[in-house]
Amino acid sequence: MTRTLTTPLTTLARPKPARRPTTLLFAYGATLNPEHIMVRLCKPKPVATARLADYALGFYGYSAIWDSGLETLLDQPGAEVWGVLYELSATELDRFDAWQGVKLDGGGSYFHYPAEVIGADGTAYDALFHRKTEMGPPRPPSRDYLDFIIAGAHARGLPGDHIDALGRIASVPPSYPVPMAHTDVKALASKLSCAC
């Protein structure tokens, strides 16, 4: 005897995969520029333009790539720096960190620094930013490097008065054509950890 199933079969609902953790990173210098981001093999999601209170942009140390001082943020009560807030996966953060020379033991060129940033709409966000570990001597940016940062500020829609202030930063002409080629992207990518 054959039985006919009269109750419809239901598919068991699969639980939705847990959302992978992300990090909010406040970008304020060359990492504003979409060209710079593409080279880093990631596509971070811009969440908001935001400002960081009581900090100012400074240039220290030296980059042979740009024949320039490199940007960092300095404590300065009453000042503010505008940037973009990126949402990064763990893998994207690893890639950013590798390019910035961030090391978990604090021995790299930059380190993670926590801060509260305020979006253009007034929303407060807990974020990280990259801050130089050792400043080295103050050194002005090369004109080309500063122009690259300003192009990124335009691309990310930062306020006009902030962009104007960037344009007033003292800069120097590079002594050779910049940017010089950086480490081969594939070679660097092979060294990245994957937090997939």
* Relevant CATH superfamily: Gamma-glutamyl cyclotransferase-like
Global outline: globular
**Number of self-contained structural domains:** 1
Estimate what percentage of residues fall within beta strands.
Answer: 25-35%
Number of helices: 5
Q: What's the level 1 CATH class?
A: Alpha Beta
CATH A-level architecture? Roll
For the largest beta-sheet, the strand count, sense and barrel status come to: 5 strands, antiparallel
Structural class: alpha+beta
In CATH terms, what is the fold-level topology? Hypothetical upf0131 protein ytfp
Could you give the order of strands across the largest sheet? 1-3-2-4-5
**Relative helix content:** 10-25%
Order of helices and strands: EHEEHEEHHH
Overall mean pLDDT stands at 87
Measured between the Cα atoms of the first and last residue, the distance is 53 Å
Estimated radius of gyration: 22 Å
Oligomer status: single chain
| Strands, count | 5
**Low-confidence stretches at least 5 residues in length (pLDDT < 50)?**
183-196
